[in-house]
Amino acid sequence: MLSKKNVVQSEEGLLWSFFTSVKLAVALIFLIAIACGLGTFIVQDKTPEEYKARFGDSLASFLQLTQFTQVFHSYWFTLLLVLLATNLVCCTIDRWRGTLLQLGFILTHISIILILTGSIIGLWFGEKGVLWIAEGQKAEQFNLRNGTPRPLPFELHLDSFITEKHPPKYDLLSYVKDQHKEKFLYTELGKPQPIPKSPYVVTIKDYIPDAALLEEAINTSEEAKNPAIFVQLYGSENVAVEGWLVAKDRNWYVDRKRDLKLEYRWVESSEELKKVNVINPSKPTLTVRQKEKNVSQEFQAEVGRSYTWEGYNLKVLDFTLDFTQRTRPLKEQQPNNPGIQVELDGPQGKENRWVFANFPDWDEMHPTKYKELKLLCEIPQDISFVSQQVRILQGPNDQRLLAYIKGDKVVESFPWELEKKYNIGDSGQQIKVTKFYPSFGVKQSVVKRSDELKKPALYVEIDGPRGKITDWVFAEAQQATAYTDGNLFLLYKQMGENIKDWKSKLRIVDGGKTVMEKTIEVNDPLKYKGYAFYQASYDPQNEKLSGLQVARDPGVPLVYGGFFSLCFGIIFIFYIKPLLRRRMSASGMQEGT
Amino acid sequence: MININITLVAFVIVSIAYMVREVWRPEILRRGAVAIFVAAFLLNTVLVINRWIEAGHAPFSNLYESLVFYAWSVGFAYLILEYLYGMRIVGALAAVLIMLLLLYASTTDESIRPLMPALQSNWLTIHVVTYFIGYGALGISFITAILFLLSWIRSGKNPSETTLGFEKLSYKIVAFGFPFLTLGLVTGAVWANKAWGTYWSWDPKETWSLITWLIYLGYLHLPLVLPRLNIDRAKIPLIQSSCLVLAFLAVIFTYLGLAYLPSATDSEHIYGNK
Ligand code: HEM
User: Spelled out in words, what is the top-level CATH class assigned to the domain A221-280+385-438?
Assistant: First the structure.
């Protein structure tokens, strides 16, 4: 073996002494540290456009040319590592003496070589990627990081995907507006909690793990300020539906089959009582605007009707309450996305256009011959194409009339009474009015539904400059609970990530046979034929979709060997060797490294 | 209930006791100061264990928990080093460091949060415990390096008087802490491989742990290099101590500073990344 001291200063010798010097080692160690630092201060692996936006043209192209934008994959970083490895090998050979005391030195230095070799093998011969797989599906390939698909030499089945959750934890949060300060409060009962640097004191008086806000109808006065009736609709024998109709608020109901409409009207005079069959103009309308002339016109949107206007011919072709359900009978559609189809005829020929009530800009986002025409439609909320109607009329001095209307004609009408069942024509249905409140009101109260933690609520007292108030604060309420002065708010909500674990029940089918089954979870992968499948993520939008990380890394055994050798070597150097040394010098032996 | 404030006060008393011992050298404090340190350390231990039981998982899942645990680690490392080498005034500064950590902890949000799935692993516990004991020892080597630099400045930059031996002590402390740092680094990689199938992904936290490790590795090799370079022999401990100060700044940055990096948003595990 070459010995440093005796080598003639040939070129070879120079090279050797260069690669065996600790100076080089230390220099390389610090250089690599600096390179790593650069790799975190400069954002890595972004697109050229992003660098231009961040650093400007010239600096960006400089950074890219020097590969400072991808330090860890750059040629010069690889060169540093190669130099380090060479240095280590040379050093270790050069100083090899084979004594016990050198064990740590050898192990640590070899470990770095092992780790570097293992990672190169992983880089060249391994593959890594992701695999999204739905419950009940199988996969025969996965995607590499850059999106290229890679085949798997077997089938991977996801039999089930389970998301386990922690019991939710709720926090009470206070917010003082003028200080812009949030604070978590304790949810202990009875303890007054002053909010720091503010005049408020919050005390929690009560707690319900599963609270419900009960809304109870009450009558507030005998004067007819807000008349309402409680109506029951019978199918054959049983109550099919029941509810309040409030004359000055929601006074109508259309049944699910859109076959029958109930309406409650409060009339001020006996004259009005006679107008029972006056039809509400609850019909869809179509509004056309000619943008250039700035004129517009409203039409009844009845299917089949045509209108001539400003040199155009408009024809209503179709009407739907739900565009995706438009082939079904109108009665069966729910008013999810109502729209009208219109045929436009003008100088440029015919054109069909859909107009949607909920998406008034729809027609402008689509190509059209008649850009100058803007169409709008309006569909009344209580629209019904019902053949039957029941009108319940009521007025002062106990005037009452119930009318059954079929088509547009009043079939029968008579004074109604509370608690009496009436047939609705010959439809087989019956109707009963069970309550009448001249002044309808709603009283709210909080009740406990169960002992389970479902929808918790806190009864909170807030003391402040405007006196004490008490209120219920519900978990996940739409709005924060505010103190009278509008400066203190309380919010009770579930915080943080509450996913406990994801588990995928995987099955491997190789050559037509199930060869392996395992339920994997985070930190516990499935391994087969050199491939490892890790539970990596889930899709919050789709609870049945499992995100797996796929890795095949033949370098891992070497890397782990390196890790072991590194740890043991270092423990040897710093903990064992000093003990050995002490023992040896005690027994008079001398040895150096 | 052992409260964080009581522990804090205990460490104030500890540092006062050490200072009194250093200045007046009363007989009772010769061993008494260390005894008080042990008592305060026990309070800190109860704090950690209580939290562990209360949270139902190893207590390093947020900044508050990790600060309290780091304070404990500094105490732990100090007591071992005290036993091994006798640390004199260093104990006072270790107590001050622990105080600062607890003070910082008491200002952060202490509420208990459930653990995200990737953090529920024994490897994580080993990884963090070894790292923090390492960090604890390295924190103490930072103190001795600062003490060296101070005595060097006070002696009018005349090295012959800076014979307190802090530079040798520093090296021994790093020699104690570095194996823990290495175990922390390696177990971190093993854990990442277990959880995600990659032992290394150049994530900022990983990269900075490596940087810290490399600086300490460089420091450990310095005694093999510096004597052969053409520099004033007396400056060698100065360079070494400066290197240690730099290295510990890197530790602090790895621990608390990463949220300020431009690449922080890509990282999986950065504390206080609100
Ligand atoms: C991986 C971590 C490393 C550790 C823990 C480590 C540790 C050590 C230790 C303790 C010594 C002194 C040998 C003794 O006195 O028994 C030593 C010597 C040496 N190390 Fe490292 N080393 C490491 C990495 C490296 C690297 C990466 C290089 C350079 C490429 C390197 C180059 C050297 C050289 C050249 C010596 C010999 C110095 C001499 O005997 O005079 N070491 N190393």
Answer: mainly beta
